[in-house]
Design brief:
Immunoglobulin-like; 54 strands; binds beta-D-galactopyranose; 8 helices; Jelly Rolls
């Protein structure tokens, strides 16, 4: 029997007889998009001109009224289409197509400018064929010749490999064209592990999909952010000479996201083999509850308290003759050092056929535990083994968990282990440059650490079930989590999420949905059906995670009523309403579920809509948003309402931590990415990042911007973000005045540029003589050379020989005195070179209006910086070798950096 922990299988670790990764050597081919369905002439008998129906979704690929109708005809759940021409005098807004389902045309209101149609009778949904029809679609067949296809490993996102194109792409994908593709995987499963049950698992595939195994149809169109587990017992072939062929068709053009969600098999895959009696998938629940006084944490040691661990495990017996069968469950609880805290066993008798038997583990008195916290994220592991009557281990599982006390209070906000703690959160989508949404599991810690670096302590998984590697990272690194379900009305999706995630101590809030995604039936978020659907998800969260007391919330202002069904009221922007919401809802805790949406670009100091550039001063936000200092500090808000100025607001989530592809705001093309991020998409800090560092973090902070490279005599607006009480600016050694720093705000001066240097001095107290800290900027000279370094420690200790780790190489343009040159007079293109044993996976520069491809061996510098992701070529590299990355640019001295290749035996990856 094989029992191992496959490091990169983010699926829950019910290990059964065997668990194999299915991530390597897929064959891949882009496919033609399916021909669009054309509507019959009489498809929409009811004319909806000059009527607006609410609760519809945008159809991204419709560019006129006809294609808008066709978009509706191609969906079996669409009864209405609406096209807005966007002409002068129209009230409907910009050119756009909206489709969806409404009950009756009288649900729509008069509004000028719309064209549209309604059909009251929906056509029956198409029934998928049982088998692959090779005449129609040869790629799904077992014998299809795919030898000429490209070989790749998953996770994979094929959209990010494209080139932006205003005509072929849409705003949500950052103008990267989205098509469809086939993935095929040939594999054998040894007869030695032949089992009674076999499951095929995908942690996430993005797009409308169809999956075939050995020519048999398995499934189409499941939810795209949710793990998928398919029973393939009757289809999987065993034996070294018998090949299995898995074929997956992915159509990325059908999506419901207004942000970049890529397309492809963008998370990991595996095969799990089980006996008919086994531990149920995600069936171990290990809640840990503080049951005594807490001994507070210190800088060096975690808080401790007596905890109870009322753990349960589900044994599943699929098939007959289960009733009365006897098994033993053995369990072992270990601490973070692997020391056994307690162990025991319980005998159990199965309750019935085709059924689940839930068994309480008697862990007895586990005594005092180290509590999980932001500063000391202490974890424990619970191992469970299912033992047959002859003593054989039939199945086993290991889950990490932690004990902590998380309380939301209507008046006093959030506390963790009895310490009042403001939730200083960031909301994030999933993508990184070069990877799109197929971010390797090994980079999830980097994504979290990059947020902690400016003082954030919480992450909202907007707007979907995250990859579980992210939650492993937040557990390990001490980051609180708002875990978000994608779509209201999909209770099964929420059930999968809560069963999979309930043991993660970092998760403190369950969320039902976000804004438009809370609309369950197309009739609006407040429609009776949407409310019933939301209640169903609340009930699922409460019953499946019935011990950890996690509140259920959502980012939906319409549900913040006096008698709200939410446990935690989520205020979506609307900073100026906190006091009113508190007056309205006395007895429920409140959080700012989404805030800010400030927009800025790194090292840009003008707004230029035509070029897609947003100024970097934290002065810009869309109509619904606010600057960082207003949203968090209430600086220019009525009565100073802000997250940090109101104790009853538990905290908040800035939209967003990282810049992401798509949803370019405030202007679209030529802008191709969001400008909301506190850091840019490559992870470089913007000026605005320092506002967060100053006020999210207790450490002294002093920062001055912009750079000091201007035209002689030019007026420059200098800002300082700092938490010192007073800050003084010097231009070429002459004081421009000392100013008091208002809490949660900034100070600014207008000065005249003269080459040389500029600096700010920070004073701890008003009137201090002594300077506590100085921050200087020098005028940079002409670029002369490149400097390559490992960025953010990603790869400092090397990369794994299995190709799963990534190193992040930062390249900076320097002048002769090693000062980073912050402005490019002409484009500087850095060319990356790499030895055969390594691969440049992709590049990024944080430029939100850059149209060059991410997946390439060269990239333009943006304000002195560019980065690349590097990995080992697992097929040829050896442990101990060095991967050498060289960087060159015309007219500049190049540089080189070596990344060492390390062993990864510890992962125990078993791939088919
Ligand atoms: C919110 C929405 C986000 C994003 C953001 C931009 O309303 O929840 O998904 O669109 O606006 O400001």
């Amino acid at each position: 029997m094989k029992l191992f922990r496959p490091y990169l299988l983010a699926l829950p670790l019910t290990q059964g007889k065997a668990l194999f990764g299915l991530n390597q050597d897929w064959l891949f081919q882009l496919a033609d998009a399916p021909a669009p369905v054309k509507c019959a002439d009489d498809a929409f008998p009811i004319d909806l001109s000059d009527k607006q129906c609410l609760g519809l979704s945008p159809a991204l690929y419709a560019f006129d009224a006809d294609s808008c109708g066709d978009a509706c005809c191609s969906s079996s759940t669409c009864s209405v289409w609406q096209w807005c021409n966007g002409d002068d005098g129209d009230d409907c807004g910009d050119q756009s197509c909206w489709v969806g389902n409404i009950e009756q045309e009288t649900d729509c209101q008069d509004q000028k400018g719309w064209l549209g149609g309604f059909q009251s009778e929906l056509p029956p949904p198409p029934q998928p064929a049982d088998d692959c029809d090779e005449d129609v679609m040869p790629e799904c067949g077992q014998s299809f010749n795919d030898t000429a296809w490209r070989t790749l490993d998953i996770p994979h996102d094929f959209v990010v490999e494209g080139t932006v194109d205003q005509d072929k792409g849409d705003t949500s994908h950052g103008y990267l064209p989205v098509g469809s593709a086939w993935y095929r995987k040939h594999f054998t499963v040894s007869g030695d592990v032949k089992s009674e049950l076999s499951y095929l698992q995908f942690e996430g595939i993005m797009g409308a999909i169809e999956i075939y195994l050995n020519g048999k149809f398995l499934i189409s169109n499941p939810a795209r952010y949710t793990p998928l587990r398919l029973d393939v017992t009757d289809l999987l072939a065993f034996g070294d000479d018998t090949e299995n062929v898995l074929a997956v068709h992915v159509d990325g053009s059908d999506n419901d996201a207004w942000w970049y969600d890529g397309a492809g098999i963008y998370r990991t895959a595996s095969i799990e083999l089980l006996d008919r009696v086994h531990l149920a998938n995600c069936g171990v629940y290990a809640p840990a509850l503080v049951a005594g006084d807490i001994v507070p944490e210190t800088e060096d040691s975690p808080a401790t308290a007596k905890c109870q661990v009322p753990a349960t495990v589900e044994i599943e017996c699929l098939e007959d003759a289960c009733e009365g069968l006897e098994y033993t469950l053995e369990f072992e609880l270990t601490d973070g050092e692997g020391e056994v805290v307690t162990s025991g066993s319980v005998d159990t008798t199965l309750s019935g056929d085709d059924a689940v038997t839930t068994v309480a583990m008697d862990l007895g008195d586990v005594g005092s535990m180290k509590l999980w916290s932001i500063a000391h994220p202490s974890l424990y592991a619970l191992k469970t083994s299912l033992i047959g009557s002859d003593g054989e281990v039939l199945d086993s599982s290991s889950v990490n968990f932690g004990c902590r006390k998380a309380i939301f209070d209507a008046d006093n906000g959030f506390s963790l282990n009895d310490v009042p703690t403001k939730i200083l959160g960031v909301a994030n989508h999933q993508d990184l440059p070069g990877f799109g949404t197929a971010v390797p599991d090994s980079l999830q810690e980097h994504r979290v650490k990059a947020m902690q670096a400016f003082g954030s302590n919480a992450w909202r998984t907007a707007h979907n079930c995250p990859t579980s590697a992210l939650l492993d990272a937040t557990d390990k690194l001490g980051m609180l989590v708002w875990d978000e379900n994608h779509h209201n009305g999909q209770t099964d999706e929420a059930i999968t999420l809560v069963r999979r995630d309930r043991n993660h101590p970092s998760i403190i809030i369950w969320s039902i949905c976000n804004e438009a995604l809370c609309n369950a039936d197309g009739n609006g978020n407040e429609s009776p059906a949407s409310m019933v659907a939301a209640q169903e998800i609340i009930d699922a969260y409460h019953s499946i995670d019935d011990k950890m007391n996690r509140p259920v919330s959502s980012n939906q202002n319409g549900w913040n009523t006096a008698d709200t069904f939410l446990d935690l009221v989520g205020v979506d922007y609307a900073v100026e309403t906190y006091d009113n919401v508190k007056d309205l809802i006395h007895n429920k805790p409140i959080i700012s579920s989404e805030t800010a949406s400030s927009v800025s670009d790194r090292s840009e100091y003008i707004n230029d809509n035509d070029a897609g550039i947003v100024i970097g001063y934290d002065t810009e936000a869309p109509s619904w948003g606010s600057t960082a200092e207003d949203a968090w500090g209430g600086v220019n808000v009525k009565n100073g309402q802000g997250i940090l100025t109101r104790d009853f607001v538990s905290g908040g989530f800035t939209w967003t931590g990282w810049d992401y592809k798509g949803e370019p705001t405030p202007t679209s093309w030529p802008s191709v990415a969001s400008h909301f991020g506190i850091v840019d998409s490559a992870g470089f800090w913007k000026d605005r990042t320092f506002w967060y560092k100053s006020w999210f973090d207790d450490e002294p902070e002093l920062y001055l911007f912009p750079h000091w490279n201007w035209e002689e005599g030019e007026e420059v607006r200098m800002w300082s973000f700092s938490n010192y009480k007073e800050v003084e600016l010097f231009v070429n050694g002459v004081s421009e005045g000392r100013k008091g720093m208002d809490v949660y705000s900034h100070v600014e001066w207008n000065v005249t540029f003269a080459a040389g240097g500029v600096e700010v001095r920070g004073y701890e107290n008003v009137g201090d003589e002594e300077v506590a800290e100085t921050f200087k900027i020098k005028t940079a000279g002409k670029p002369t050379k490149l400097r390559a370094t490992i960025m953010d420690d990603v790869g400092t200790e090397g990369v794994g020989v299995d190709g799963l780790d990534i190193a992040k190489v930062k390249v900076e343009v320097l002048d002769a005195n090693d000062v980073v040159v912050p402005v490019e007079e002409d484009a500087i293109t850095v060319k990356f070179g790499i030895t055969d044993n390594g691969v440049v996976v992709g590049t990024g520069n944080g430029n939100n209006f850059d149209h060059d491809p991410d997946v390439a061996m060269e990239r333009n510098v943006y304000h002195g910086k560019v980065m690349a992701w590097i990995k080992a070529d697992r097929k040829i590299v050896g442990v101990g070798e060095e991967i050498v990355v060289s960087v060159e640019a015309e007219g500049l001295e190049g540089d080189k950096i070596a990344v060492v290749v390390v062993d990864t035996k510890v992962r125990g990856v078993g791939e088919l």
